[in-house]
UniProtKB/TrEMBL annotation:
Pfam families with a match to the protein in the record: Yippee-Mis18
Gene: LOC120269160
Ranges for domain Yippee: 12-109
Record keywords, A-Z: Metal-binding, Zinc
Keyword check for Repressor: no
Protein name, as recorded: Protein yippee-like
Keyword Transmembrane set for record: no
Source organism of this protein record: Dioscorea cayennensis subsp. rotundata
Signal peptide residues on this chain, from the entry's feature table: none
Highest taxon of the lineage: Eukaryota
GO molecular function, one term: metal ion binding
Family named by the database record: Belongs to the yippee family.
Length: 129
């Protein structure tokens, strides 16, 4: 295995909850109104220091999407997913974008999002969908 090269972000950022690897900047958030099985999730335009899993089709609240899970390069934790393709015309804006589950990351101030026992479990799309 080769040497691990990480992208270091400057200023406030989102990082891996487990190993503090830098992931994304707040200015790259497109939407804060997404949900996943652990509660809130954010849609990002750009994320760094992740690897991707295998492509798979998933039926979500807003229709069928082709996605890949994304993993932290520092510790291997699953962080969310990347939209590879949206099969509904009105969902095409998600293609190439990333979902980070708030439960899996530390916020820009180093704070953690704690899920409640009432976590939303029905899907992984915006509240207003």
């Amino acid at each position: 295995m080769g040497r691990l090269f990480l992208v270091n972000l400057e200023g406030k950022m989102y990082s891996c909850k487990h190993c503090s690897t830098h992931l994304a900047l707040p200015e790259d958030i497109i939407s804060r109104s997404f949900h996943c099985k652990h509660g809130k999730a954010y849609l990002f335009n750009k994320v760094v220091n992740v690897t991707v899993g295998a492509k798979e089709d998933r039926m979500m609240m807003t229709g069928l999407h082709t996605v890949v899970d994304i993993f932290c390069v520092g510790c291997g934790s699953i962080l969310g997913w990347k939209y590879e393709a949206a099969h509904e015309k009105n969902q095409k804006y998600k293609e190439g974008k990333f979902i980070l589950e708030r439960f899996k990351v530390a916020g820009p101030n180093g704070n953690y999002y704690w899920t409640s026992t009432d976590a939303h479990v029905a899907g992984s799309d915006p509240d207003d969908a």
